[in-house]
Automatic annotation (TrEMBL):
Prephenate/arogenate dehydrogenase domain residues: 9-278
Protein name, entry field: Prephenate/arogenate dehydrogenase domain-containing protein
Pfam families for this protein: PDH_N (PF02153), TYRAAT1_C (PF26213)
Keywords, alphabetical: Oxidoreductase
InterPro entries, sorted: NAD(P)-bd_dom_sf, PDH_N, Prephen_DH, TYRAAT1/2, TYRAAT2_C
Organism: Rehmannia glutinosa (Chinese foxglove)
Amino acid sequence: MSSPSENSLKIGIIGFGPFAQFLVKTMIKQGHFIRATSRSDYTDLCNQLGISFFRDMNEFFESDNDVILMCTSILSLSQVIKSLPLNCLKQPALFVDVLSVKEYPRDLMLQVLPHDSDVLCTHPMFGPESGRDGWNDLSFMFDKVRIRNETICSRFLQIFASEGCKMMEMTCEEHDRLSSRSQFLTHTIGRVLAEMEIEPTPIDTKGFQKLIEVSATISMLMKDYMQKESTSRDSFDLFSGLFIHNRFAKQQLRNLELAFETIKEQLIKRMNEELDPS
């Protein structure tokens, strides 16, 4: 563990599930001071990690945090953020989210949080599985939505930059537009393959073997993202959150439906032509 320095931050974490625990190990190693609160009682685990756990949310907000990191699930964010005892804040803080959608938490935080609180939207594009051997060359997206204290913001971003992450600054809108393909479409295809229960056969072609590999890879990625959803009971919570709270995902689903229907129509047309050449 690094010794505390002038760059050390007091980071309060709301939602201490698997993803928060994953992030905290690196933050502790870098010498930051961590406080956590969660619906479940993580007192024993926090004692083992050498950090403070607060059962009382008022006391958590009174603990003078530089950064308040929201590590809740997509579907629970609204309820959580609207229930925060913001009147207990002793000083303006930097609020940061790590959700897999970005416009939704941005709008919520701007709507609910005090105007003197800074807002940083981020998406670490990795999780406990893909980042278990380090964060080097893994992507970290961020949008400085409302930043007055550049020093605190820079120190927080440095947590990821110093571990070798590829720091990608873009707007929340651009993130959601891009991730509706790269993320939502990946999850959708993965669920379709899972529903079909594709398995190896004795006469597999190379192409089908590749499809099996793709299915297995998508399954691993879905498990990785699941660990980021600290309060989700099943993977459909995350999947539905990606759909409900990313406005671009609806169009991607329509595009997928249209593509399937186009192929289906082409096949039926060709079949009819072959069976009834007259």
